[in-house]
Structure prediction request, 87 residues.
Amino acid sequence: MKQPMTQLPTRASRPAASASRHRGTVLKGSIHVRYADGREEVVRAGDVYHWPPGHTVWVDEDYEAVEFSPSGPMCDLIDHLNSKLGN
Prediction:
């Protein structure tokens, strides 16, 4: 059974860029994102987001978000991140 991801990577432990598209909204806290072209932004509580393939994300604080991404690729990503985080 797929396990929920308990945390995103921190700046120091960022994974390789995501090959999937992600859409969602941040409910609490913030998420940093770097796009393939090098631009960076911070998505904060109340913001909606659409991250194209090639982005990298990390967090510096607790957050809550709702993802509207396709479940298959999202579950694969969560499993991968959990394995890297030791969850």
Remarks:
- The helical segments are 71-85.
- The chain is about 15% helix and 30% strand.
